[in-house]
Structures are given as structure tokens and as C-alpha cells.
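Hey,
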Amino acid sequence: MIPYEALVEQEMRKFFNTLSEKDKRRYAAVETNRLGRGGIAYIVKVLGCSRKTVRQGIKELRELPSDSQYDPRIRQLGAGRKPYDETYPDIDQKFLDVLYDYTAGDPMQEDVLWTDLTMREIAARLAEKHSIKVSVTVIDQLLDKHNYRRRKAQKKETMKTVKDRDAQFENISNLKAEYQAAGNPIISFDSKKKEPLGNYYRPGYLYTTQELHTYDHDFNSFADGIVIPHGIYDLCQNQGYINLGISKDTSEFACDSLYHWWHNKGQYIYPQAKSILALCDGGGSNNANYYIFKEDLQELSDKIGDA
């Protein structure tokens, strides 16, 4: 028997340690058979395995089937971890029991339920209350099985019914079609939430070399000023335009914003325009119930008409 060089022995040990138990036995057996007399003692020393392991590997090599009959499975059929519902037959009931005290619902719809527990909290309570230890993956499957989905609230319930609501939307739709056919602009506008300026927290992430610190409360008294975004959306061009105010959200500010859009953008995009269709909600600086807004709109119309 001629032993391997030290570097080869080192590579053999590294490879041996990456194998499954079955493949370790068979690899040791292959090397032993190749070395001949004295091979078992040498391989045991090099790989750090036992003689019993090598002999078992030699036996398995002799009993290996032909290529057409080879089964690549490492473990025997039926081995491995059993499904969670076989290990814990009553897991569904225990799962619902854990959710019971942390479940709310709609008294008008019995099938609408929600829970404020996270998957990790549900798993922890299952283990603590019922000695059922499962992963969050199993909890995710149980939530899906019992029709719990990750959702957020949707603003879809109408607070009141307006008699002529459909007629209003039909009228708006007709006006939009009329203005679009004539090549006149159609804009939608509204003011957005005021934002205080200063060292305040803002959601989001960025790359930085040092930790960033902000005030622990967003008190307006600490602000250096405010910004009032006023957005204008051109429906025909699918373009947005934003003006930033720094004082008050008034009807005068809304109309000034519209004039800036027309002066800088609108008159060049719609040089033949005879009228502008302005769509807005009924609150804030553009409240349709305020005469001041209608008065400012008339002044804006006169200003644009004279320009």
C-alpha cells in the first residue's frame, strides 16, 4: 500500500466531512478497496472513522443494485418528520383556542373576524398553552386554512346616500368627453396634508455613514415653517404639477396655484383652449359651499381670459 501525500489526505478529509452518513461509509469503502492490504487501517486513520463504518461501507458496495435499479433516496421510505397534523391531531382546535381571546369581529357579519396576534406570537402561545411547538410556516398554513388573510382596512363604505349621485357622475363624465373632444384641458386639483419643516421623523430608509437622530415628538411649535402641497393633475396629458405654499391653505392659494400651472404649462400645451374643466372635491380651500372660493375662481377666470 502506498499512502497519499499530506495535501491529498487533507482534501480527502474535507470532502469526507461534506457527505451524508451513507456516502461517508461508501467513500471510505471505495478508498479502502483501491489501496488493498492495510487500506482499512490507513483510511480509518486519515478520515477519522471507525473500522465498523468502513466494513459496513464495503458490504453496501457489494449489495448495490445495477444502475437501472438504483434508488437515490438517502433515507428509507417513510423516514423524516411527519406532517404537523399527524403529530398534533387536534392542532386546529388548539389553534382556534389560542386565537379566541385575541379575536374581534363584526357583529353584523359573523364570518368577518380578525386577530391582532402576529404569527410568532401565535406560535409562542401554542407552545405555552398547549405544548404544541411548530414553526411560523405551520402557523401561516393554519391561518390560510381557516381563511385568515393579511389585509388592511379599505375605505369602501359610503357614509351617506345622495339622491342625485349617479346623475352627478354622469354629468361629469359627459363634460369630460365634451372637453376632451374639443381639445380643452381637464384638470383635477386638491391641497394635501401640511408638512412641518424641521428635524422631524420621516418614514423610509437611506444609506448613511452615521445614525440619524430626529425629535422624539412632532410638535408644530418646534417647526421652522410649514409646506402646503397643492397638486394639479392634467387628465389629458397624464401629467402632474405641484405648487408648494408656505403660509395658509386658502382659496386664494388654490387659485394662485391654478394660475401658475396655466402660465407655465397649460397655455403652451393647449394654445387653442377656450375653457378649462376643473374637477375638485368639496372641502378645504376649494370648498364649493364657500362664496370666497367662487369669487376667487371668477377672478382667476378673468385673469386668464385677459392674458
